[in-house]
Amino acid sequence: MATATLSIDLDAIAANWRALDRLSGPGTQTGAVVKADAYGLGAARVARALAHAGARRFFVACSEEGAAVRQALGEGPQISIFSGHMAGDTDMIHDLDLTPMLNSIDQITRHLESLPGHSFGIQLDTGMNRLGMEQGEWEAVAPLVLDAGPELIMSHLACADAPDHSMNAAQLAEFHAMTDGLDVPRSLAATGGILLGPEYHFDLTRPGIGLYGGMPFDSASPTVALSLPVIQIRELAIGETVGYGCAWVAEAPSLIATISGGYADGLLRALGNRAVLWAGDVPCPLVGRVSMDTITVDISHLEQAPRKLDILGPHQSVDDLAEAGSTIGYEILTGLGARYARRYIEGTGRS
Description:
30% of the residues lie in helices and 23% in strands. With 351 residues, the chain is α/β, with parallel strands linked by helices. Strands 1, 11, 14, 15, 16, 17, 18 and 19 form an 8-stranded mixed beta sheet that branches. α1 crosses α3 (43-53). The mean pLDDT is 96.
């Protein structure tokens, strides 16, 4: 089967980081979130491009991801672990100089006992009820923790992609209540928080999805393009059906292209009979169901049979495709499959 090509624009990712760095303001450091293999785009290549752009603090989900980023970057940049200091991670955290964001009293105990003097941060829960310590827990351990010298105190906004949501102001107030007066750098804002304004920026911002061209950073440069090769083309008569479940029926004589790419490659089943692919500037509807390895596209209106069709590109962003599949751009990006041939673009001089 022919291999689809996923083009990843490292210069665009770096340009997005610089833009978010400018929005964060001169008094705030801008980190970079490269968890989930840099949202599916390749953590090693992306982290190096971001480091070249000026990023010095990176965030990942777990220690294993931190190990991959450390291998790519070498010594120097700080790599913080959102999941904290998990049992069994002590040697990796020590040997690779990773900085766990401690989420609980158990993690604080584990870290301070097993790695005294090693860098760490603290994550507080200001209302999201996911990771971090609530106010009562934090008050109980704050004197001990502060004496040990945390690198950062952070929390995470639940509704930053909805600027008018009351939760944003409530979490900001809670974060102030839990941290004001402490002589420790603070961080509250990821991409959406940066866009909420300076009062959310504190000492460090942590852009993630905005680096990769996703909402809510609507002025981001696009970072990915995905072209899918045509495997076979067939003619259908009126009344003939396409794919599993006979989910599409030809209402006129039709020309159907079978395309390499399916749900094993991150093309959601929900895109069946809903998504659009592009032959240059011409839209072509996806017809029938999405299969594991293939999709089928109506190309009856094209003047010439295409060799490939684009599903991500200048006419369709990850968020456009996500809307067709009733999901979010994050899921589209992180689901882009391992079978794609990845082509990295850099050195174009974009600022």
